[in-house]
Amino acid sequence: MEPVTHKVRVRVPATSANLGSGFDTVGLALDYHDELEFTLCADPLNKAAQVLIEGEGADTLPRDESHLVVATFRRACEHFGLARTGFILEAHNNIPQARGMGSSAEAIVAAITAAYAFSHDGELDRDAVFELAARIEGHPDNVAPAVYGGMTVSWTDAADTRVFGDGSVVNDGYRTVRYLVDPSMTATVFVPDYELSTAKAREALPATVPFADAVHNVARASLLIGAMNPAALADRQDPNALLMTATEDRMHQQYRGPLMQPSADLIAKLRAAGFAAAVSGAGPCVLVLHAGDADAIIDAVATEQLESGHWKVLHLPIDAAGVQVSRS
């Protein structure tokens, strides 16, 4: 198949997963983006990738075929029927790496979206992007909001799991639904100057949790849907009180806290002041959800951290659009 265009631009939002109680299921798109431009080489004999990086990761990310965007783009092009080709990737990165803001999901979604746009005319098929992105990422909670925007709740359907003779497992049954988020909802993200790998955060989790803790999280995660869109509730409720309850967690944060003690301490301080704070994804970023403008008060609570020079703060609206793409 021949490409339908020679240049594609992609804009992908940062994401925050879990939101406290919604472990491995709930994700939220944030109005903070990476922008990537893919330009195909005119020389058909040139099959190489040239990678230019500006912003986050400029000093640490690889610039060869091992770059996650490049590797995923190659795989996605093959999936959509495009022959291997040379290209230039210009990445303008804002999303911090290894902090819990969905940088790997962004890279995967960006690459698949670009491959789709090179291989198809017309509107982006978000479902096709989501299905392949979830399969490559191995779980859907971050890729879903990056693709669709807003707040998503995702799961896997065991009926679609296939086990092969070599022991490998493929799950094609990734599912997600998108929920409305009230326009008044805002997110504050505190970004520390240290990293935490998702693999290490995953290793800290126990194989089982107490039954009471599981029930606790089921109730709080169910409440998240209404807490993020209180206008849909049958009875008027204080959204910030609902958010405090909805973000309570007993499934993962207590086990991961020792790996990111400064983040755990900041969460405790913010929650003591009445703000719905939680670990963003696997951490170590701290997410605060709030209805209405409380930026100055939230910053005041975290004065010690912000003045230390080890943290920066981002006050962000919720991204309702998800990944955006254009051709030229």
Description:
It is found in: Cytoplasm. It comes from Bifidobacterium cuniculi. Its main location: cytoplasm. With about 325 residues, this protein is an alpha+beta fold. It has 2 domains: about 5-180 and about 320-325, Ribosomal Protein S5, domain 2, CATH 3.30.230; about 185-315, 2-Layer Sandwich (Alpha-Beta Plaits). The chain is about 35% helix and about 25% strand. It contains 11 helices and 13 strands. The protein has helices at about 70-80, 105-120, 125-135, 145-150, 200-205, 210-230, 240-245, 255, 260-270, 295-300, 305; strands at about 5-15, 25-40, 50-55, 85-95, 150-155, 160-165, 170, 175-180, 185-190, 275-280, 285-290, 310-315, 325. Strands 1, 2, 3, 4, 5, 8 and 13 form a 7-stranded mixed β-sheet that branches. Helix 1 (about 70-80) runs parallel beside helix 2 (about 105-120). The longest helix is centred in the C-terminal third of the chain and has 18 residues, at about 210-230. The two termini are about 20 Å apart. The mean pLDDT is about 95.
Produce a short descriptive summary.
This protein is an alpha+beta fold and 328 residues long. The protein is built from 11 helices and 13 strands.
